[in-house]
Structures are given as C-alpha cells and as structure tokens.
Design brief:
The structure holds two protein chains of two kinds.
Chain A: E1 3-12, E2 15-25, E3 30-34, H1 41-48, E4 56-61, E5 64-65, H2 70-74, E6 77-80, H3 92-102, H4 107-120, H5 136-146, E7 154-158, H6 166-181, E8 185-190, H7 193-199, E9 202-207, E10 210-215, H8 217-224, E11 228-233, H9 236-242, E12 252-255, E13 258-263, H10 266-276, E14 284-288, H11 291-298
Parallel strand pairs in A: 3-8, 3-9, 6-7, 7-8
Antiparallel strand pairs in A: 1-2, 1-4, 4-5, 9-10, 11-13, 11-14, 12-13
Chain B: H1 5-44, H2 57-88, H3 91-95, H4 102-130, H5 141-161, H6 170-184, H7 191-194, H8 197-203, H9 209-220, H10 226-253
Helix pairs in contact in B: 1-2, 1-4, 2-4, 2-5, 2-9, 4-5, 5-9, 5-10, 9-10
Classes of the chains: A alpha/beta, B mainly alpha.
Amino acid sequence: MIVAASSVSKRFGNRLAVDRLTLEVPAGVCYGLLGPNGAGKTTTLRMIYGVTRPTQGKVTVFGMDIAREPRAVKARLGVTLQQNVFVEALSPRENLQVFGRYYLLGDTEIATRAKELIDFFELGGHADLPVQALSGGLQRRLAIALSLINRPELLILDEPSTGLDPAVRLALWSRIRDLQAAGTTVLITTHYMDEAQRLCDRVAIVSSGRVVEEGKPADLIVKHLARETVELDCTAEEERSLLDPAAPIPKRLRAGRRLILYVEDAAPVIETIRSRDTHDGRALVVRPTNLEDVFLAVTGTRLEGDQ
Amino acid sequence: MNVSIPHAISVWRRNATMYRRTWKLNILPNFFEPVLYLLSIGIGVGAYITQMEGTSYIAFLAPGLVCVAAMNGASFEVTYNIFVRLNYEKAYDAMLTTPVEPDDILCGEVLWAVTRSCIYGGCFFIVLAAVGLAPMPRGLLVVLLIPVAGLLFSSIGIAFSIRIPNIDLFSFYFTLFLTPLFLFSDVFFPLKERLSGGWLWAAEALPLLHPVRMARGIFRGEFSVVMLWDLAYMLGLSALLLTWARQGVIRRLTN
C-alpha cells in the first residue's frame, strides 16, 4: 500500500473532524476521496503528509510512519493544495526553481525538470512571464507542475479543478491520467462526482469524517443502485398511477417534484410510464447512473424504496 | 530543534530570488534615508549644538543611526512580509508539503531578515564611511554588530507576527513600539544625562539601546565591560524570543 491509515481520528476542540477513518491506497491507482465540503477530506490529506497529527491512529506512507520520518516521506510525494501558492512576481520557471530547492535539487537538475514540466503542461508561451499575468487555468497547471518537481511517487491533489472552466478541466484531467499511466499513484479529493468518475479507479466516500463506502465507481453503482437512471417530474399521486404496481421499482429517490428511478433496464419502465401517462409530452431523462447518484444514496438522502 | 540548514537556506533563497527582482529599486532608498537623517538632524539640528559627549552632534548621531537602519531592515521583513506569506499567500503551507519542516522555515526567515538588516545597515555604513563619519579601521567592528542587531529585531518581530490575528495591528507595532524605541534609545541624546536612578535601570530594557550604545562605543574607541552586557542582552533576548516564536510557528502551521 502506498498510503495506509487505520482507524485515524482527528479532534479539533469539540469537533471530531475525522472519525476512525480507514483508508488504503494501492500503488498505481488514481484514488478519489469524495465528500461535501467539511467532510474531513482536507484534514485526512494533511494527516497523510504529516502536517496534521492524528489524535488517534497511525498513517503510513510508502510503509513509513509519517510522524516519525516526515522528511523522507515528503521527499517522495507531491501535494497540490486547494489554494495555488506561488511567488507571484516570479515566472513559472522561477517558481519551479524555488520549489525544487525545497527538495535540495541542484540548479541544473531543476532546470531540466522545469523544462520537462513546462512542456508537459503546455506552459511554454508563458514560462517566463510573471505568474500574476497567467490565467486561472494556466495557474492551476503550474500549481500541479510545482508539486511534480521532485518526480513524486504519490501525487496528492486537493480539489484540483475547482473554479476552472470545462475545457480547462478536461485538459487537466488528461494530464492527470498521463501521470497515472507513467506510474504515479494519484490521490485526489473532490466534491465533483463527474471528476471522480472520469479519473478515479477507486473512490472512498467520506461523510462526517468517516469512510462510508469504498470501491470501484462501477461496482458501487451496481451495489447501491442500478445501471440506468430515469428522471421525470411528477407529483407523488401521479407517481402511483404512472408506475406499474406489478413491477415495483425499489430504488427510487424523490427531491421535490423530481422523481429519480434506478433500474437495470430503462426501456420497459419508459414504455410503462408513457402508456399510463395522461399528461402529454412529459419529459423523461434517461441516463447512465453515476457516482453522484451513489453519493446521494450513500450519504443520507434516503432512498424511498429502502423502507 | 529540528533545523536542517540546507532546507533553511532553500527558504532563504525563495526570498532572495524575489528580492533580486527588485533590489535595484529597493536599495536606493536605503542610501537616501541615512543621508536625509544626517542632513536634517545631524547638520540641521546639529548646527545649534556645539558638542555632545565631547564630539560634534553629527558624529554622536551617526553610529546610532546604523543600528536604526538594521532595526528597520529586519522589521519590515518580519512584520508585513511574513504576515502576508503566512496568512494570504500560504507560502508556508506549501513549503510544509515538501521536506521543509517548521523549524527550517523559522530559521530561513530569520536568516533572510538578518540579511535585509545587513543590506540596510550596510548601506548606511557605506554612506558614513564615504563622508568620513566612520572612524577606520575600528568602525568596521560595527559592521559585525549589524547582523546581531538584525537578529534581535527579527526575533521580536517574528514572535509578534506569528501570533497576531490581524494585519492592522502592525501599525501599533510601528508607532507604539519601534518609533518610541527610535526616539528614546540613546540615538538622539544620551539617556544617562536625562534619566536618573531607577529610570536609568529601567531604560536597560529598551532593545535598541544596546546596539546603539555598543556602536557608539566602537566609533569612539571606548571599549568597556558594558559591551559584554549589551551583547549578552541581544543574544539572550533573541534566543528567548525565537524559542517563543518557534512554538507559535508550530502551532500556526501544524495541528
């Protein structure tokens, strides 16, 4: 295991930020920690790179106890914080140089690596401009580039794509996949379920400081819900008349007027609804079930069928 | 203590890299400031003072101002700059994701503030030497005193900066602490001729008094055991405050 946390807790005063959390990140995967803001994701990351000390439990990284050998562990990992941290007056190349020195790399070695990273993240045209002149997307790429200057075996990304526009997010995800393909283990936190689904081989859903579910996204979908999702707007009364009582759908969710049905095969359900519907042209959405559905199901919004 | 000097130097180099960008703009005021003081107070006010402690007023004033320059050089660095790096830029949070540890950060920042005090104080000394106000060669000993004074004011500033919740509190630090020090620490007039008894003893608590008294003693060629006390005060108080600052750094950056 690259990261192993066994039943770690962190208390801040009266608040239990992380509550007996257990986590195992195997080598070579992209692992996602999913959860709403305040679930304890960032605290968990901070315990992994040793800046936050667990109140209880132990975290090992690369088989080493982070509390005992912080320098040795941190030399082998890279962290991109939620907030970009640069020397704004300096250029990307100079920022990489500053950051490389924290790892005690020599200046020629840093120059070689900086050039590689500038190429990899397509920062070439901006490599020698002050960072403050760069767009948000370029800055985020640079932030990740900084955490790669030591060629880490484990890359930790805290909310990597928050605040970025869709095209930039896509480009970023493709870089992260490239890194993973080259053998880097990636640990990512996000509250964007689409990001997790696109990037992560395994995810842990964190809620109130605990891992409430863990596994491959596809397995979790099958385990908790079903492959396909049908969404429609209707009242509770209409719902009773629209669905066939002979073929009950145990996994469904209601949020206001929105009814969400999780089924293995959507076709017969749609047919039933269409044939029983008196309301002409009711919009039906059919889509694959995604992590967001699993997230809703697992973290509290009760499924109506699960009585 | 868990300081790794190479890591502390990497923190120092971060600041140095940034400073190298702007040093040409930064260094000129360093030369002007002493010249302005020497002209206004030393020559302007000094014209009405025939002698002070047996020398011309400007010769009395000059060594103290070297220490003031060292104090200011360190103070700007460890107040606003450190506060911004800590609270807004989150520079230290990023450093701690690398093999740099909190003690390295503290050490690197103090080294850098001392460097800034040497730049400020050094510029001032060059001006004094150029106009013949620094007696040579013994005046060169004051050059060695500059980093010690810088260390003292770096330690005081860091211990303060790491604990305050709000950047506006620095105006108190400057107007209610540094300015009174500047005005009442033997720089402009000899305290021992204005204070008596218990007050003179109480004045020993003033941090700036010690480097100023030492610098003046060196310039005048009057060496005494009091200098050992001055040196011990500066190093002792620095060590004490850095120990306290270290607790603050660890508490602020890790939990």
